[in-house]
Amino acid sequence: MKKVQLLTRRRALLAGAAAVGAAGTAGVLTTGPGDEPALPAAPVGGPPARRAHRPSAYRLKPLTGYGSPRAVPVRPPVRREPLLRVSGRGRTMVLTFDDGPDPRYTPDILDTLAEYEVRAMFFVCGEMADAHRELLARMADEGHVVGNHTWSHPLLTRLTRRRIRWEMESTSDVIEEAYGERPLWFRAPYGAWNRAAFQLGAELGMEPLAWTVDTLDWTTPGARTIVDRVEDGAAPGVVVLCHDAGGDRSQSVTALRRYLPRLLDSGYHLTVPRRQYT
Ligand SMILES: [Zn+2]
Asked: Which residues lie in Low complexity bias regions (predicted)?
């Protein structure tokens, strides 16, 4: 019964999302149609969003694995540049948190997002996700979108194609197991993209999403500076880059508590992007 309620809540959250498409420099993508969520989330009869405590049972019955046609996202085009912003109605922005999940900071960020009923994107690293699967299950329960940020956060431009594939594929696998769906979005560590990353990302059903505003929070410039960077960069369609792992992220946690209510007061709708190819 609880699982049904969780799924219902998740569907309600997704259905309530603004129609937001990802818009790249090429301007290929446009606003999604109507109010139907374009993300193939929580299929009827699909697995429960929360299953972190039963990973082995899930492995035996891969309802959304490669064996199920509805689970394989339609392959997006191979891009030459990552998407940098989203297009949508009104003052829409997307918050993204990279490198986690980290049990020291991610729960606090999730608490703040929940307090304001805001959904965000988490570009997780496979090795972190594997160690903290319960946090991916929570992200699923609370309607957040999880993207692929490679397994070990390497500089992809220095890796072989075979190694890049492993970094991406193994991360998508652990996300599927812990979150419930394979990721539809990919972000290269350090924003260092190359042709292999674009090709393999598309092959694995993912769109490359970069960012518009970099808070540089990983340099620990102080919560106030992070807040200023978000507020100075705020504009319709902006994708904000923050981090919930990779070092001491307490400034990022504090900053979110300050800028999130202010953005909402300014009329911004903080949401997650929807894919056009599903
Ligand atoms: Zn990163």
From this structure: 31-49
